[in-house]
Amino acid sequence: MTFVLDVSVTAAWCLPDEESETANRALDRLRTDEALVPTLWWFELRNALVVNERRGRLTEAETVAFLGDLGRLPIRPDERPPSSGLVLALARRHGLTVYDSAYLEAGVRHSAPVATLDRMLAAAAEAEGVGVV
């Protein structure tokens, strides 16, 4: 079953001090399921990696290796454009950023649970009936 993957979970996979049961569960789920990501994920992930390089938590080589490993996982971009109206409505209804709302919108549109470490996004996914990983 497809699920929506957000950057908080993805980044936790490469930052050992951010070990998380949710992140581990999502990674394990990729053995049999596919993750769907909004196009925003590509940029947001690389930004998180570079920021963590600057903070000394990752080296450039670790970032390159991580992205290589990530490329072998069944993670695919959501090719359908998001509904602008739904993204905005979800952001307003749940007090989310538009960025976080993009993940929720994909979950709602695809009837897919969301894998996130963000408490507000997780609560919104539960409230919208798509659930969390």
H/E series? EHHEHHEHHEH
Average predicted confidence as pLDDT: 96
Q: Taking Cα atoms only, what radius of gyration do you get, to the nearest Å? A: 14 Å
Distance between the termini: 11 Å
Would you count the extended β strands for me? 4
The percent range for strand residues is 5-15%
Fourth CATH level, the homologous superfamily? 5'-nuclease
CATH class: Alpha Beta
* CATH topology category name: Rossmann fold
Number of helices: 7
Describe the biggest sheet? 4 strands, parallel
Shape: globular
Can you walk me through this structure?
It is globular and about 40 Å long. Helix 5 (84-94) packs across helix 6. The chain has helices spanning 7-12, 21-29, 40-54, 60-70, 84-94, 98-110, 119-127, and strands spanning 3-5, 35-37, 75-77, 114-115. The protein contains 7 helices and 4 strands, in the order βααβααβααβα. The mean pLDDT is 96. The protein has one domain (3-126): 5'-nuclease (Rossmann fold). The chain has a 4-stranded parallel sheet with strand order 3-2-1-4.
